[in-house]
Design brief:
Length: 193
């Protein structure tokens, strides 16, 4: 019986395998640019050559995130102190990446120590963003009224206005400075407004 090979962390380290990241995650697919909102979790895309309509993410979501396929991806960003570990025993897919990042940033709260590490100006920005993100409809209401800030803040609030996935990139020097090591399955997530 022929099966698909999924590399675990141990295999990656022992084999020294370089991973080829899916062009959609690199922002390099000429016919599909991913639109992924970390606040709402909504995913779609567009064709840069025909921007008149959004494209569904349905046919792309089950594509492997890397080749060869791996069971774990580690995603960090220069905008936040957290590490997102994407796991799938059958190989990480594009859907796994988006779902895990969204859940990691919306289901987990900023600790008091993490919040206090921010300068006062950024603390105020996080408070405003958190109040806006908790409004029903998450729209322009923040410009017309001042909602009470919540007493707990989600990780997505830390990102302030940088809530759209842009691309993933390999940055070994940043991985080493941030985590103390590099690995083939560590990628840095770039976000935009």
């Amino acid at each position: 019986m022929c099966g698909v090979l999924f590399l675990t962390d141990v295999h990656l380290y022992l084999l020294g395998t370089d991973l080829q990241l899916n062009p959609i995650l690199q922002g390099a697919n000429p016919s599909f640019h991913l639109l992924f909102n970390l606040v709402s979790g909504s995913t779609s895309g567009f064709n840069p050559e025909a921007r008149d309509r959004d494209l569904s993410f349905t046919s792309e979501k089950d594509q492997p995130a890397t080749l060869p396929r791996v069971t774990d991806l580690i995603i960090i960003t220069e905008l936040s102190p957290w590490c997102t570990i994407v796991h799938n025993d059958r190989g990480v897919t594009l859907s796994d990446v988006c779902t895990t990042i969204w859940k990691d940033y919306t289901d987990n709260y900023i600790t008091e120590q993490e919040f206090n590490s921010l300068p006062p100006r950024l603390q105020e920005q996080v408070k405003r963003v958190a109040a806006n993100n908790q409004q029903p409809g998450n729209n322009w209401a923040m410009y017309y009224n001042t909602p009470a800030p919540p007493n707990r803040y989600k990780r997505v609030d830390w990102l302030r206005d940088k809530i759209y996935f842009d691309w993933l990139v390999k940055k070994d020097t940043y991985s080493i400075s941030r985590l103390g090591f590099k690995a083939p399955n560590i990628f840095v997530m770039n976000l935009c407004s």
